[in-house]
Amino acid sequence: MPGFELFGEKERAQVNDVLESGVLMRYGFDGMRNGHWKTVELEKAISGRMKVKHTQLVSSGTSALTIALASAGIGAGDEVIMPTFTFVASFESIIALGAVPVLVNIDDTLTLDPKKVEAAITSKTKVVMPVHMCGSMAQLKELKQICTKHNLLLLEDACQAIGGSYNGKPLGSYGDLGCFSFDYVKTITCGEGGAIITNNDKYAVHADHYSDHGHDHTGKDRGAEAHPFLGYNYRISELNAAVGLAQIQRLDEFLLIQKKNYTVLRKAIENIPGVSMRRVPDGGEENYSFLSFFMPDEATTREVHKALSENGVDGCFYWFDNNWHYIKKWDHLKDLKSLGKLPEEVINGLPDYHSQDFGQSDHWLGRTISVLIKLSWTEEEVKARAQKMKSVLNACCVGA
Ligand SMILES: *Cc1c(COP(=O)(O)O)cnc(C)c1O
């Protein structure tokens, strides 16, 4: 998945443009900037690639999620449905607004089970937030039907799946709002950065103002601009945007490499008895940043995970034990350990995450292994890797 692997002249040239003018901020300083508007250019490039009306670049994927929610008016006491398997950012971005994260079980797509989503809806539910984990996507058609039926917003966390698509639409553009991350380990990176995409004019204006202290950006002198509502500083810098501009132009090149490498590894293991592949919803095209598969039971999965790393197959993840990605080890979140006191409305509205039944998620994630697909592997390296994975899996499955 990591765009950091392939870095070069194009990124350097873009950054140099910014350094030569010295204007590191996205707004203002028109006379000094030699015509360089890297953030604006990158927003246009993302809108074009994702076929949406609006893109708002911001400082991170986490802030993108918070801003996306805020732009639609989500706040204290509103419930947002999210999956048990994600990155802690999903939870943080909701709680930051005083809204309530409602965690729902995943299925064999490794993200939201639509049936469980529908069962979790209450009178306070406002948003369904699927997370397209590890390069593949949620069952968007089913989730959209549920959202339409219950008048809910569909917000796609596409931070790990940029470049994938569903029924011909780029991931992130299917729902009302979509978010991307360009942090250092994502498919394309700009160091730190994120984006919100939408076709909704009102949300776009809100996201624009909210991410810059509520400035209305009417183009007057910055000091003379009005502030229709409060906001924060979630701005991206021109330096980061410059890197992103070079990287987005390489997105399709990266996706092709990922797909090629993924396909070699997949073919080597998919027919081994006992191994089954993660389900990609019909009409979905992954971005191929990970290859995820299931083993028959938890013990075998642990054994395979250990054996893969002992045999030099690096970049294999057993998310079940991971304390950033799966609810099981999110004690700091489940116990709401914050610095200040959270509002009563938040505390009282939260479910008791400790006593909820996440057995269905355990069932899938306890048996999942994901292999990171790298861009920099040579053909020989991919072949050798495929061979090693095949022999490890064969040996473990025979033993099972
Ligand atoms: C990386 C990531 C985020 C947050 O992005 P940052 O840019 O690191 O803040 C949110 N959701 C998912 C699924 C992610 O993988």
From TrEMBL:
GO molecular function: transaminase activity
Keywords assigned: Aminotransferase, Pyridoxal phosphate, Transferase
Pfam entry (one): DegT_DnrJ_EryC1
InterPro entries: DegT/StrS_aminotransferase, PyrdxlP-dep_Trfase, PyrdxlP-dep_Trfase_major, PyrdxlP-dep_Trfase_small
Family annotation (Gene3D superfamilies): Aspartate Aminotransferase, domain 1, Type I PLP-dependent aspartate aminotransferase-like (Major domain)
Family, as annotated: Belongs to the DegT/DnrJ/EryC1 family.
This protein's name: DegT/DnrJ/EryC1/StrS family aminotransferase
